[in-house]
Amino acid sequence: MKKEGGCQAGKGSLERADALCLRRGVRLTPQRRRVLAILCASARPLGAYEILEAMRDGSRSLAPPTVYRALDFLLEQGLVHKLESLHAFVGCRHPDHPHSGQFLICRSCGLVTELEDRGICESLLSAASATGFVPERRVVEVLGTCARCAEEGGCRND
Amino acid sequence: MKKEGGCQAGKGSLERADALCLRRGVRLTPQRRRVLAILCASARPLGAYEILEAMRDGSRSLAPPTVYRALDFLLEQGLVHKLESLHAFVGCRHPDHPHSGQFLICRSCGLVTELEDRGICESLLSAASATGFVPERRVVEVLGTCARCAEEGGCRND
DNA sequence: GTCGATGGCGCAACAGTATAACAGCAACCC
DNA sequence: GGGTTGCTGTTATACTGTTGCGCCATCGAC
């Protein structure tokens, strides 16, 4: 459980989030910012209760609703994503434009890669609209083995 | 909570499941068959505890592990799917060939449509393999409004 | 037949995830 | 000042899923 710099989001994530919320007229309060900071600093997705634990750092006792409310806000603003298959959250890699990404989730090392593949979006939307369905939220998660782990794990070429 | 014939799976679902398990040399025990029957008879996805409730029908008292074990089996055999975004399960519409479908989930009426769109699969797989990722399980769920509800709800064309 | 191995199931307890409901408080508008 | 709104703290609880143990039926070996 290393604690070093975030892989998910760059250094300026928080500052960009500040600017973005300012522009939108919504409030990135200290609690919300804290949750975002924890997520951005993590190399892997975190569960709500892990975030809670991280927020308790010093001594303050916090309860789940605090974290969930902050997450709700951040999800609404597109600053974080929820990984349904993991019950966990990650900082968004490019929050500047609203989107619902696709996620490659390595079961071996926990690494999550966020994609924004136009082909996937289009085939998904066209398949949906072919049935008259009106999409609102898309959940696309692929569980498997990342390149590095697949390599280390023994060069599976099958 | 109507109980009439299943929309998700046709009439012969159970019989096909019997044959399939026989062929594979695995046992579709009464409990497992019961869970499958309940799912197939439901017009909408059911949570594990809803299935549990349905199984208690008469008087027998059952515990969660019973249902979860049956579901594990059915999932392994591809006879049911889990909808991660709903924490719920549906009978598979075409269990004869293994696959991981895509799901259109209506937030208004609960209807779930299972797709098997080649385009989506291919764009997903090609995007994954472009990064060297080795996919094992795919979760593709689109939440929104089904054609009927969209129509009734007031012809939203936006 | 009976012995051990296996797999399915019943049962109790518990772990993990998420929400409801209510209270306090600060900021803002009038 | 007084009402309103939005954010947070707190307690309790609901919902989802798992662990661990023990029983019993089945099946093959002997």
UniProtKB/TrEMBL annotation, chains A, B:
Main location, first listed in the record: cytoplasm
Swiss-Prot/TrEMBL cofactor(s): Zn(2+)
Domain of life: Bacteria
Gene3D superfamilies: 3.30.1490.190, Winged helix-like DNA-binding domain superfamily/Winged helix DNA-binding domain (1.10.10.10)
A Pfam family annotated for this UniProt entry: FUR
GO cellular component: cytosol
Annotated InterPro entries: FUR, Fur_C, WH-like_DNA-bd_sf, WH_DNA-bd_sf
GO molecular function: DNA-binding transcription factor activity; transcription cis-regulatory region binding; zinc ion binding
Residue sites binding Zn(2+) per the record: C106, C109, C146, C149
Keywords for the protein's UniProt record, in alphabetical order: Cytoplasm, DNA-binding, Iron, Metal-binding, Repressor, Transcription, Transcription regulation, Zinc
The UniProt record lists the keyword Metal-binding: yes
Cofactor descriptive note: Binds 1 zinc ion per subunit.
CDD domains: Fur_like
GO biological process: negative regulation of DNA-templated transcription; regulation of secondary metabolite biosynthetic process
Signal peptide annotation: none
Cellular location(s): Cytoplasm
Keyword Zinc: yes
Subunit architecture: Homodimer.
Family the UniProt entry places it in: Belongs to the Fur family.
Protein name, per record: Ferric uptake regulation protein
Organism: Imhoffiella purpurea
Lineage: Bacteria, Pseudomonadati, Pseudomonadota, Gammaproteobacteria, Chromatiales
